[in-house]
Each structure stands twice: as C-alpha cells, then as structure tokens.
C-alpha cells in the first residue's frame, strides 16, 4: 500500500511539471550567451547592401548605350599602315555616333581650324591645338591603338586610335609614344607626349576625327573652348563630309564644271 501511494505521488508530480516545462524558455549557459552575442556583433548586414548594390548596378548597365559589335569595329580593316584603311569600302550614308565619352586630348587654344589652306594649296583635315613640347596627350574616347608611326613630311610621330563608337582619331607632331599598337585605352589615358615633329611650324597637336576614313571637322563635334562634346551624339552625313573634304578650290571647280554642263545642255536644247 505504501508503494502504491509513492507511485501515485510521482505521477501527480509529473503531471504538474509537464505544463511548466512545456511553457518554460530554454536558457543558454552564460558562456554560450556571451559567444552568441559576440558572433552577432561581428556580423554585418551585408544581404541588404548586396541587394541595393546589385540593383543600382543593373540600372546603371541599362542606362549605358549599347556598344557596337567589337569584332565588327576592330576585326575589319585593322592591320594597315595607312591613316585611312577604308579605301574602296562602302560607307554608310548617315550614322549617329555616340561621342558622349569624349575626353580633351590636351588643354589649349585652337590655332588652326579644319579646311582648305590657300598658303599650302591643300586641305587641313584636323585642328591644331597649341601646347608645349613634352605635354601629355590623352585618348579622346575609349578604344584601341591601331598604329604608331613616323611620317617625316607630314604628321611626324603620330598615333591612330580606333574607338568603340566606330570613329578613329589621329594625333600628330608628337615627340614620344606612350601607348603601343593593339593596346586598349580608356578616354583620358596618356598615349603620347606633344612635340614639333614632321611638317610643323611650331609645337602643337594636330588632331583629327575620322569615320570610315573620312575626316570630319572636329569643331562640329567638340566645343574646344570648354573641352566637351557639343552634343552626346553626332550625326555623320557622308555627302556633307565628302564635300568638306574636297577643299575650296576643288569644290569651286566642281561647281563651275556643273554650271558649264548645265549651260551647255540648255544651249543644245534651244538649238533643237
């Protein structure tokens, strides 16, 4: 009987303890609590940061203009020792060129513009920017150096860079090369030092902008006084650019020839 009473007492005690244990909060030992706190303190809320950074990068990538096919830009007519490697190539009639990434090659006043030079009897296919010998010349756009060469009777030491936007830029009368052929460059990267080599009347940078070998008046693209592009996009017009490359005398002769042809046709028509 005494054994039965003890057993019942144990069951009763268990029945009382079960709900207490079920509702009780488990507590770590003090040592574990300290370790747990130190672990939490050492952690940084990186998940949120990563999400924000990734979203911003994604939005930034979307806003960037789509670059042309790099194989198309740098794969064709690349290996050439000529300033114009596109001789005989079909040229687009009209093309919008992204020039928003322009970087000023050298800070200085323009001393001579684009166009026909009566003094020399030839067309000047770029602009001349004043500098001191040894001044750093920088790439105008992102791109790749196509050639570095010396031309005693013309450009002197010069660099030609082809750019992601399909244009090429020429830098003449240099004193020293910094960049090498096939080197990838970013806008603003040093490519050479300014000089007075070749057919030059004084230290300056001869700077050209070309598309498919046709020289474009750089002052139609760039505000040289402020060192920025006039607009983010330049519309290349083949007919207008070809006309500007003829020179004043050639253009006048062409106009006179057309006028004579028209007059001759009129006389022939009148006689009939």
Q: Which structural class do the helices and strands define?
A: alpha+beta
- β content, as a range? 25-35%
Which second-level CATH architecture of the domain at 92-247 applies?
Distorted Sandwich
Give the overall pLDDT as a whole number.
Answer: 79
Provide the CATH topology of the domain at 92-247: Glucose Permease (Domain IIA)
Taking the sheet with the most strands, its summary is: 10 strands, antiparallel
The number of helical runs is 6
The poorly predicted ranges are 15-24, 250-259
Q: Over all CA atoms, what is the radius of gyration?
A: 37 Å
Helix content: 25-40%
Specify the CATH class of the domain at 92-247: Mainly Beta
Number of strand segments: 16
Shape: globular
**Secondary-structure element string:** HHHHEEEEEEEEEEEEEEEEHH
How would you describe the oligomerization state of the chains in this entry? single chain
The H-level CATH homologous superfamily of the domain at 92-247, spelled out, is: Glucose Permease (Domain IIA)
Between the first and last Cα atoms, what is the distance in angstroms?
150 Å
Keywords:
272 residues, alpha+beta, Glucose Permease (Domain IIA), ten-stranded antiparallel beta sheet, two-stranded antiparallel ribbon, 33% helix, globular
Provide an overview of this structure.
- The chain has 272 residues and is α+β, with helices and mostly antiparallel strands.
- It has a domain at 92-247: Glucose Permease (Domain IIA) (Distorted Sandwich), CATH 2.70.70.
- The protein contains 6 helices and 16 strands.
- Strands 2, 5, 6, 7, 8, 9, 10, 11, 12 and 13 form a 10-stranded antiparallel β-sheet that branches. A two-stranded antiparallel ribbon has the order 1-16.
- A hairpin with a 4-residue loop joins strand 14 and strand 15.
